[in-house]
Amino acid sequence: MAVKDLKKPSKKRKQTTEEDVPAPPALVVGGIEMLSDEEGGEDALSDDGRVDEFPEIDTRSDSEEGESDEGDTSDADEEGDGEEDEEEYDDDFSDADSLHVFPKAKTIVSDITGQPKRVYPEIEPEYDSDSSTEDAPNRVGNVPMHWYDDLPHIGYDINGKKVLRPARGDELDKFLSTVEDPSAWTSAFDKNSQIDKPLTTEELDIIRRLYVGEIPDAEYDPYEPTTEWFTGKGKEEVMPLSSAPEPKRRWVPSKWEKQKVMKIVRAIRQGRIIGSKPKATSKFTFHSIWSEPSSSNPPPLPAPKPRLPTNSESYNPPEEYLPTEEERKEWESQDPEDRERDYLPQKYSALRLVPAYDRFIKERFNRQLDLYLAPRVQRFKLNIDPSTLIPKLPSPGSLKPFPTYKSLKFSHGKERARCISVSPDGAWVISGDETGKVSLWEVNVGREVKSWNFDSKIGALDWCPRLDVSYFVVTVEEKIHFIIPPNIPSPILSLTQALLAPVSLPPAPSIPSPVKWITPPTSRWSIDTPILTANLPTSSGLPTQVTWHRRGDYLATVSTGGTQGGVWIHQVTRRHSQAPFKKVKGAVQMVLFHPLKPHFFVATQQYVRIYNLSEQKLLKTLQPGIKWISSMDVHPSGDHLIVGGYDRKLCWFDLELSDKPYKIMRYHTRAIRSLHFHPSYPLFASSSDDGAIQIFHSRVYNDLMTDPLIVPLKILRGHEIRDGLGVLQVKWCSRQPWLISGGADGNVTVWCS
Amino acid sequence: MIPATWKRYQLSQLVNKALSLPKPVPFDFLVKGEILRSTLGEWCVENGAGEEETLEIEYIESVMPPEKVSDFPHEDWVSSVSCKLQGQFLTGSYDGYIRSFDYSKSATSSTQAHSAPITSICLVPSASSQIVASASHDLTAQLTQINIGPNSKSTPLATLHLHTAPVSSVAANNTGTQLLTASWDGIVGHWDTSIPESDEVPEVAPNERDRRKRRRVDGGGKVKRKAPVGVLKSHVGRVSRALFSIKQEKNAYSCGFDSTVRVWDTENEICVHTITASEKPFLDLALPRDPQTLLASSTDRTVTLYDVRLDSKPAAPVSLAHPATPSCLAASSQGQQVVSGGYDGMVRLWDLRSTKGALASFRAWEEAGKVLSVDWEGNLVGIGGEGGFTVWKVGDGA
């Protein structure tokens, strides 16, 4: 309904125009009302409208009627609209037909009135009828001519015979005809007869008129003198047009109106109609805004005064205010919000040469935006050079030495070189593979000097960190072997033998341990067999990790199976083993001794727990946020820990800072396998299943304020990925910045600086 | 004025003509320390020198491409070679044997000097007999008399006992009276070559586990245990090589993993000069003919030429860059040329006047293998390493 209401006015207007069309004389009348019987009703209504004002009465019913009337009229309007559209359509057609030239009219002086009048020539039925004499035999009508495109004819003549398609030349003919025929450019294609027809002079005249913008009809005179039909000289109307007597109602007061008024008057007298009370004007109270004390709020700040214009804003500023070419360029290159001033001084020799204010529209627009609470300036994305966001790290070249190239490689054949260890003096490497072979070789020649064979896969091996004795431990299935390397000086050899196989065995511990320590008898000692073996309890599995305490007396092993998380701490001098944990939550991945304090790091699948071994309590639980920890290493200072996971993350913990990582790095594309801090250089390395080793510079400062500096230095590639395994272990050479890496491809590689 | 299209050949002809040599000698040409391999015009374009500039071109006698002479396959790696013995090649191997070969590729002697790998051998020049000094992983060096001949037996003369870590090198002086041993324990031992009458170092208590020592005690009762004349202590890391100076008898040089090259006065057993490099663990030394310079190879893949004069201003040392670790060096006794062997199996020939690139390089063996030792005597270069021992002919036969 609302939509209809909205539409109503326009429709009414249309209706009126439509009503105007059939009776143009009524409009031209100019003041005089034409009274006719048919229009009487309408007139009466309009008269009613003019009748004196009446006090407002509740005329709800009337309005309803009006509405319904309007609804009816709107329906009628719609119909009328339809008709109107059709009429317009017809009009269009008549326009199209009007291309046919009318016979010219002559203007002669009428014999009767003495006035000039137009006379059209007589139409002769034989020749002059509008179309029959024309040479237009095609009677197909106004249909799209492409219907006949595929047919040989183009329509039918009045007798129903086919009108054949006139021959049309190809494009070349068309072109030649345009060249040869001087009248070709004044001919047009007649769709109906499908040929080019030369335009007549009248048509050309119409085209010319259209071209110059005149009225196309040459006959039409827009400036005809007004003909005053009824008021002109000698044409004044003195007699009414109609002879009907003037109706009585024109001068007699209406009886029905009087009755109606009286009815209302009576109702008012009887109190049935109560006039609405006057509006509550008395409620409006004046109050003095000045008399009251000011409120606690501070008065609104006065608007800032606009800055006074300066010399440079003058239309004719002194020369020194004019910008130079560079200043102009700089000003134009800046963003509008970055500019120091929002105009450029310009010089005009006279005020009349000053052009219109060019930013008027822009300022109006900005004002509108302000009123609309819209931001004036579209803020672009922060335009920051990405290189400035990268933290400033020293260049790797300034952090030399670090390993840069593959110096040599030692091959284990096809077997995976699972574990490697470097002697404390940095001269020898032992590497163990999965067939049970342990090789001892020189770091910088790569020649195997000695090898030991065991009957099962080597789990881990590590060199005792003591310098006064020389031996290493090798773990195989449920066994830990202690082996003395060859070619060591006799004092060290005898001391090592005295340590590992003393003449008088230490007293057995009070609590019997399930770990049995066995030394073969002296007569069966040989360089090829271990001098001491610790048998772990059965079904404890393969010890996958062995780590020494700094002093070289205690070592810890982590086995794959067994209870207590598989963690054992062995003391070599007392030949005693103990399991420090009764129960460990989660599978233990790795253990480490703190290099300085009696602390013990235990990495389970997701957490790293730090225990105090002397007080036997849990100190801290680190949460690396790694799904499965694979390796960890503690900085030689003991304050920092790196933890690597199978989910490629490497976390750096500052142990004094927090139990959350100080830094998380994800540089590897596959699982991290091994981590190692260099014992003396500020370096650490990480190896991964992607076959790459990454070298980091890690400088740790003594003052607690400075964060550790971690700089990625180098990616060493050279190990092949085999069965999805890359570099299984990395170890640093203790006195040189050299790295030794064992890979799944069976090669142990030495990377030199 | 020389045409820019000239190459080595035209220049060589020019020099030959100018010197009016009776027999044409091929020359190579150095332009700003670089061997001319292309035309002069191309060199100018590559190095950005204008063709109008004056170029200083130095001519050197060109080196014929090295040719392989013979191959001596070994079962184990050859750690050290020596060509100093006239008509013979000496090799020390990782299986502890010292072998000798004559030029007709036949083994002339073989003796097991050590049960542990031999790291270095050298010939002790003497008039009467052939004495070879060898250093080994078993912490000793040994003097062995080699008797050339199919059935002759070599006799160990004395073992040198000082070191507590594997001995990395042994070297004798020109006259064959003194020896230097370098060891991993950072000590350089100074010995004379006289064979003592009795043991100078007491025998340690025989240990049942040390069968090697026991056997030596059993087998060679007449092997004397010899003590050093002096000990040169100054290195803080492993000493990789110690050599006597060629000209000055009492001077010696040593280099080590502590990135230093030290010059010693062996009479007073003091270090008179120390050249400290930054982070260059040195692997080998060589003394070119010029007595004031010294070449040292290090694990950072360079061979560096140092000036060992005491009063020399520390100039920027010249470096020869290698693509792999240069493990060994040998200097020619005649000229400015040096060979270096690398862990990539390549042996490179350098001219010290042209440091930008090697004069020639060749692969010692068909298969890849580390070169561990080179020695240059005359025009023969002996190369020992992972693939055994080969001899190459380098330079003209003059």
Automatic annotation (TrEMBL), chain A:
Signal peptide: none
Compartments it resides in: Nucleus, Nucleolus; Nucleus, Nucleoplasm
One term under GO cellular component: preribosome, large subunit precursor
Pfam families for this protein: BOP1NT (PF08145), WD40 (PF00400)
Extent of Basic and acidic residues compositional bias: 47-63, 325-342
Biased composition range(s): Pro residues: 296-307
Positions of region (Disordered): 1-98, 117-141, 291-342
InterPro entries per UniProt: BOP1/Erb1, BOP1_N_dom, WD40/YVTN_repeat-like_dom_sf, WD40_repeat_dom_sf, WD40_rpt
SMART domains the record matches: BOP1NT, WD40
Biased composition (Acidic residues): 35-46, 64-95, 123-133
Keywords tagged on the record: Nucleus, Repeat, Ribosome biogenesis, rRNA processing, WD repeat
Domain BOP1 N-terminal: 148-403
Superkingdom to which the source organism belongs: Eukaryota
Principal place of residence: nucleus
Stretches forming WD repeats: 410-451, 665-706
UniProt GO MF annotations: ribonucleoprotein complex binding
Gene3D superfamilies per UniProt: YVTN repeat-like/Quinoprotein amine dehydrogenase
GO biological process: maturation of 5.8S rRNA from tricistronic rRNA transcript (SSU-rRNA, 5.8S rRNA, LSU-rRNA); maturation of LSU-rRNA from tricistronic rRNA transcript (SSU-rRNA, 5.8S rRNA, LSU-rRNA)
Function: Component of the NOP7 complex, which is required for maturation of the 25S and 5.8S ribosomal RNAs and formation of the 60S ribosome.
Self-association state and partner proteins as the record states: Component of the NOP7 complex, composed of ERB1, NOP7 and YTM1. Within the NOP7 complex ERB1 appears to interact directly with NOP7 and YTM1. The NOP7 complex also associates with the 66S pre-ribosome.
Homology family: Belongs to the WD repeat BOP1/ERB1 family.
Name recorded for this polypeptide: Ribosome biogenesis protein ERB1
Organism: Sphagnurus paluster
UniProtKB/TrEMBL annotation, chain B:
All copies of domain NLE, residue ranges: 2-43
Extent of the WD repeats: 160-192, 232-274, 319-360
Keyword Repeat: yes
One Gene Ontology CC term in the entry: nucleolus
Compartment(s) of residence: Nucleus, Nucleolus
Predominant location: nucleus
TM ranges: none
Residue ranges, annotated region (Disordered): 195-223
The entry's keywords: Nucleus, Repeat, WD repeat
Bias (Basic residues) ranges: 211-223
Entry annotated with the keyword Nucleus: yes
A Pfam match: NLE
Domain of life: Eukaryota
Record's protein name: Ribosome biogenesis protein ytm1
Organism of provenance: Sphagnurus paluster
Lineage: Eukaryota, Fungi, Dikarya, Basidiomycota, Agaricomycotina
